[in-house]
């Protein structure tokens, strides 16, 4: 949209947007008519606008703001919506409830920015007259937040979800366990948090670090996210990245008598789960409680960066490999993931795993490929559903520039704003069949060097704006158009108090990203 219409500079970009003459005024007397099935979206509209605009938006059969669920609008899919704003009425329609939730966020963006932060309660608010028809390109538009390495309070997670929803991102992948910490409470295994939730120091600051959620907090987060159309996907790492679990329960390791600490370093730890039955009892117990808290159809099992040295040195692991008909201990990785993945499938869930090559996970897994786009193609050709998470386009803990005032971060490739917006989830060489297996994409924010919510927002925004724009709109990257809309969109971020990295001439440049990355 031209600079003269900044209120129409929406992020992400709608599929079609047609301005119309006139404006619709919302005032204290404006009411909402929610047709059957649209009540939740109407409730969200009140929840989001009431405190900041002072508009009560009461329900009424004569309301000028109309929300309608119409299953006959099949072309809009699960998340698409149609929005028509005229001088007298607003009509938001969708085929599914989530489509109405996406439309509510568009209404928020169409209002003046101070409607997001809290304007005078006795004023009226204007919306531009417009007609929008909008459908997302990808089903999975996510962001992974690592709370294992640096625990974040649940208030930070709720705000993170709120900002995701504003940008129509729909998956919060919560990285709950790793070598450096275990944050998910498990009633049957209390030492996971009482021991595994504490480490003597972190690499970034040298001070002790601890934290864990309660199940009540996590359930409330799931509810908060669901009301905004966001699914929380939990990740419990295995069979590597498990040092915190082994510190709590040494019997799960390949040397059961060894006492380990929660890891204080960064990189790939060589201690991994053993392959005896006690380990699989542990995994089932943990995952049963995880599934009780998280209703997500997807459960992430980690799965990558699993050194096999301990298995190769273990007579018990070598015997296990031989009994399973494997060629050697190296085959235990796929066997392990297959056993645990099958358990999730039996429970009606879908296992997800990181893939370092695209070919190492059992067929029932949804694959997240991060090392190379070619791995996404390999996984799709094997029949996997794929979420593209290529580090050169989605790793937000990488620096955004070489400026000396950039905060410390993971060494490796730069991931500037342009690289995120240019990232295409569908890998080169994919035909229609392979492309159909790409669910979408997500950003990753590992937190070894990220301690505070303020740092998280600085690293996430505006790069998550770029990922949201590409994941929702699809097609070729319209970088100049995105930059123009983003310049206007920052007024909304300002109104919400987002601590984003300021836009500069350099940050809006299109220079290519840097060099190869180290292990995560």
From TrEMBL:
- Origin, by domain of life? Bacteria
**InterPro entries in the record, alphabetically?**
Beta_hexosaminidase_sua/sub, GH, Glyco_hydro_20_cat, Hex-like_dom2, HEX_bac_N
Keywords from UniProt, A to Z, are: Glycosidase, Hydrolase
Annotated EC: 3.2.1.52
Q: Which Gene3D superfamilies match?
A: Chitobiase/beta-hexosaminidase domain 2-like, Glycosidases
Pfam families attached to this UniProt entry: Glyco_hydro_20, Glyco_hydro_20b
GO cellular component terms, alphabetically, are: membrane
A Gene Ontology annotation in the biological process aspect, one of them, is: carbohydrate metabolic process
Which protein, by its recorded name, is this?
beta-N-acetylhexosaminidase
- Organism per entry: Streptomyces pratensis (strain ATCC 33331 / IAF-45CD)
Give the lineage.
Bacteria, Bacillati, Actinomycetota, Actinomycetes, Kitasatosporales
């Amino acid at each position: 949209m031209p600079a003269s219409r900044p209120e129409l500079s929406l992020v992400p970009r709608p599929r079609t947007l047609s301005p119309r003459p006139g404006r619709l005024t919302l005032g204290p007397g404006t009411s909402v008519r929610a047709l059957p099935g649209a009540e939740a979206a109407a409730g969200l509209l009140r929840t989001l606008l009431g405190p900041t605009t002072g508009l009560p938006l009461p329900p009424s059969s004569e309301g000028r703001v109309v929300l309608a669920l119409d299953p006959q609008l099949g072309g809009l899919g699960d998340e698409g919506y149609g929005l028509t704003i005229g001088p007298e009425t607003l009509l938001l329609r969708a085929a599914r409830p989530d489509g109405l939730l996406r439309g509510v966020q568009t209404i928020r963006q169409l209002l003046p920015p101070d409607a997001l932060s809290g304007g005078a309660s006795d004023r009226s608010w204007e919306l531009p007259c417009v007609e929008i028809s909008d459908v997302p390109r990808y089903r999975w538009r996510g962001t992974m937040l690592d709370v294992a390495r640096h625990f974040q309070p649940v208030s930070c997670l709720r705000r993170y979800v709120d900002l995701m929803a504003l940008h129509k991102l729909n998956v919060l992948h919560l990285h709950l366990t790793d070598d450096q910490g275990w944050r998910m409470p498990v009633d049957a295994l209390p030492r996971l948090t009482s021991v595994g939730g504490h480490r003597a120091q972190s690499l970034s600051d040298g001070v002790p670090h601890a934290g864990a959620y309660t199940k009540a907090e996590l359930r409330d987060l799931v509810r908060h996210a669901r009301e905004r159309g966001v699914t929380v996907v939990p990740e419990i790492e295995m069979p590597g990245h498990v040092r915190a679990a082994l510190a709590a329960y040494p019997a799960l390791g390949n040397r059961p008598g060894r006492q380990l600490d929660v890891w204080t370093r960064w990189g790939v730890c060589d201690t991994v789960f053993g392959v005896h039955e006690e380990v699989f009892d542990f995994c089932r117990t943990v995952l049963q409680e995880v599934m009780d808290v998280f209703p997500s159809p997807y459960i992430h099992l980690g799965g990558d960066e699993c050194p096999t040295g301990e298995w190769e040195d273990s007579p018990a692991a070598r015997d296990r490999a031989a009994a399973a008909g494997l060629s050697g201990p190296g085959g235990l990785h796929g066997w392990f993931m297959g056993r645990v993945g099958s358990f999730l499938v039996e429970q009606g869930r879908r296992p997800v795993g990181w893939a370092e090559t695209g070919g190492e996970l059992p067929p029932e897994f949804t694959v997240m490929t991060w090392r190379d786009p070619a791995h996404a193609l390999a996984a799709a050709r094997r029949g996997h559903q794929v979420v593209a998470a290529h580090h050169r386009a989605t790793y937000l803990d990488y620096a955004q520039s070489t400026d000396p005032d950039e905060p410390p971060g993971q060494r490796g490739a730069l991931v500037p704003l342009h690289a995120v917006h240019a990232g295409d989830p569908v890998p080169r060489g994919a035909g229609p069949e392979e492309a159909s297996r790409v669910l979408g994409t997500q950003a990753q924010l590992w937190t070894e060097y990220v301690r505070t919510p303020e740092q998280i927002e600085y690293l996430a925004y505006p790069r998550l704006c770029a990922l949201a724009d590409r994941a929702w709109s699809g097609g070729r990257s319209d970088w100049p158009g995105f930059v123009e809309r983003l310049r206007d969109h920052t007024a909304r971020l300002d109104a919400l108090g987002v601590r984003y990295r300021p836009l500069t001439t350099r940050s809006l440049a299109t220079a290519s990203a840097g060099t190869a990355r180290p292990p995560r």
